[in-house]
Amino acid sequence: MSSILSRCRLLPILALPWCSLAAQAQLLAPLPPMGFNNWARFQCTPQKPLDGSNPAAYSFQRFMEDQGRALHDSGLSAAGYKTVVVDDCWMMRNSQGYLHGNPKWSGTQQPGFDYELTAYMNTLHNLGLLGGVYNTAGAKTCQGQAAGAQGHQQADANSYAAWGVDFLKLDNCGAEGGVSLETLDKQMQAALKNVSRPIVFDPSLPAGQYPQSPAKYTALALAKQLGQMWRVGPDIKITHDSAPPVSPWDSKEAGYEIGVYQSYDSTIALSRYVGPGSWNDADQLMLGDNGLSTSEERSQMGLWSIMGAPLFISADVRKMVNPQTAHLKDSLAILSNQRVIAVNQDPLGAGGYRVLRDNPASNAGFDVVVKPLKDGSLAALVLNKNASEQAYTLNLAALGLAPTANGAYTVHHLWTGASQSSVKAVTMRIAPHDNMMLRIVGGGALTPTGQIQTTQPGFDVAAKCLSVAGAAKSGAGIVIDTCSNSPMQQWQRQSNGNIKLLGAKLCLSANATAGPGPLNASTQQWAKLDACDANDPKQVFAYTMTGNLKNSQGCLDVFQGAVSVAGTPVEVYRCAAETAPQVNQIWSAPHGAKL
User: Fold this and answer.
1) Cross-strand pairs, 186
2) How far apart are CA 85 and CA 22, in angstroms?
3) Residue pair 401/440 in contact by the 8 Å Cβ criterion
4) What are the residues facing 85 on neighbouring strands?
5) pLDDT tens across 467-499, in order?
6) Which of 123, 370, 473, 497 has the fewest CB atoms inside 10 Å of its own CB, making it the most exposed?
7) What is the DSSP letter of 381?
8) At what angle do helices 326-335 and 294-307 cross, to 10 degrees?
9) Is the pTM value of this prediction over 0.85?
């Protein structure tokens, strides 16, 4: 196989900016990909031209080209949104097994795609864009098209390379003959490696597994080996031009769709998997004509950016070229905000993690998320989940920033561009479902600080938080509890391996003398607080990619696996194998840029 550098030379000249980034990092997608995908907004439903011309002559291919032109003409491609991905229903497979464009749009009389996609890809490349396609690992796509990749991986990869495809989204549907999705995804990756064109690979493997399933974490480990980004949860809820009957922001629909908050909640829990060339895909941006308020759009953009999630718009971008409504003008401004995009595209590639969730509900309380940046500054976002405007004060020292000489920092407000000097705390009134987003400068090295959470019992169910049982004192027991603003849930993962209770001289340890019942001393010890001691091996915890907090005695473990029951005690127990993880030993913890 040729190197990425030599393969990049084979690309059209207008794809060279992408290649330049790949050459610098010697990997595909060193930054979170950005672009457009039609699925969440349009699915396979035929659309009309905006100029009022005859829709019967308006093809699926022309519609996608028009979205690409709109990215260019609106300035969004210049802001970074360059990869145009056509989702399901674009394809068919002929009797010889050859993948080709579907001549009809979703079975209607409207035209679909050309038989060969070369001209389509050339159109996108000539606009300075990249082109992506969708398929599934199995024999049939999720919409039932008998055009899946199973059994055709190398032939399909050859076609993609010949057509000039830059990106492949591979869904989970349609596996036949007892072949696992893991095997099919491996076969697709091997086929992509065997062509002369670099193609970003986006397998959906982890998305089909619930967070309470051990298979979720083996799927994530495999996806990180195979692809550059991967879906981590269900489809984001589909909304429409008119106000939907159920809020798209914070409600779960029947079926495989969830709201914006739940998509964020499932993704932020997995931030340890994020890094250059490795991105958790929280699904598509619903900014534009999808039914979100401007405040909600600002929050989705901010949350996706601070998580390091790929930014793929799924809205009618055609309407953002000379937008005719105040809402669409705001949508375009939010999507184009370079201060916020810079957080998403920061070259350190750190995943944002949650410092605080003071209420487990999706529609009450506040969340605080932070992300370390390459220049040593810290991005922070405060989300108001309430249905009314609320005031919030963010204490900057509580984020884990190293102290400054005067205890103050410089703060840049990313939505407005305003700056403040010598600040110890920031107070702001935040509109409902809106956010305050900051870049904080000063203080030097960050000590990862915040709540430590269990796995979620379900995609739309809140995780529990690691908590001190009762008062903070030596010997106090450790439990899981409902996440709140209690100081008994704020932990600092120090560079020496200690996990310190914020504001105290007490650290997480093991071998408590008392607990809810006797344990087997050879395999189990109750977790407790003790005076911090960097030389005590029971207090030195490593954090693994799987999510284990591991010391010399074993792994931090929720007793009897009761991760959904508040008050359940926590023990240190023999670690499960990385290849067969146990969800009661998996934690979402604050972390640095690398594990």
Assistant:
1) none
2) 19
3) yes
4) 37, 132
5) 999 999 999 999 999 999 999 999 999 999 999
6) 473
7) E
8) 10
9) yes
